[in-house]
Write a structure and sequence with these properties.
Number of strands: 6
CATH architecture: Alpha-Beta Complex
Number of domains: 1
Structural class: alpha+beta
Shape: globular
Largest sheet: 4 strands, mixed
Number of helices: 4
CATH class: Alpha Beta
Radius of gyration: 16 Å
Length: 216
């Protein structure tokens, strides 16, 4: 989700890394909900929402079962993903990059790996159990919401399709952002639905407003 779109809808720009075509960053899960609610007032037929964690991973993988949509750890490099440049270690010297800087996956989705961690709709669940499930959802309640994808600040291992993390819904950092989905829940997960995951992630590390948090 670009800063230009956020600015047009919300009338402000909370991002630490400024640029109209950069991802909006330094936003909480609650901020994302406020944006979606306001945009939905103008376009209610779109049924805007955050993706579930299962939808997010399906869209990220784009039909693959490797560590990344483009292949294994051996294929990871700074030409494909905006990350720290190391496998395990974070790096505060980076920044977000404009949308479509990196190649899309085979479903046409950009920056699913790296750039910013992306909020999902679900409450965080430690696991989903061993039984096969269709359209699984996270915990029914909790204290933290799911984030996926890794960020410019993250080591490469945290940008894998399968990696998971979580934050309190009022947390906002310069490495946190989101993309939104179109359509109702439980409408089926597949290429068509994943292709409707619109916008681009937003992340960040340094605070852009009073009362926020820096990366820790």
């Amino acid at each position: 989700m670009t800063q230009a779109l956020w600015q047009a809808v919300m009338g402000n720009n909370p991002s630490y890394f400024k640029g109209e075509q950069r991802l909006v960053d330094s936003v909480s899960w609650e901020d994302a909900q406020a944006f979606l609610q306001k945009l939905s007032q103008a376009y209610p037929q779109l049924a805007l929402r955050l993706p579930t964690e299962a939808e997010w991973e399906c869209a990220c993988r784009a039909g693959t079962n490797t560590a990344f949509a483009f292949g294994s750890k051996a294929e990871l490099n700074l030409g494909r993903v905006n990350y720290s440049g190391e496998w395990n270690n974070h790096n505060l010297k980076g920044a977000t990059q404009p949308v479509k800087t990196y190649p899309p996956n085979t479903w046409g989705l950009y920056e699913m790996h790296g750039n910013v961690w992306e909020w999902c709709e679900d409450w965080y669940a430690s696991d989903y159990g061993a039984e096969p499930q269709t359209d699984p959802r996270g915990a029914g309640s909790g204290e933290q919401r799911v984030v996926r994808g890794g960020s410019w600040f993250s080591g490469g291992r945290y940008c894998r399709s399968a990696d998971r993390d979580r934050h309190a819904p009022d947390n906002w950092y310069s490495y946190l952002g989101f993309r939104f989905a179109l359509g109702h829940l439980s409408s089926g997960i597949g290429q068509e639905q994943a292709g409707s995951l619109s916008g681009q992630a937003r992340h960040g590390v340094a605070p852009a407003r009073a009362g926020g948090q820096t990366a820790g």
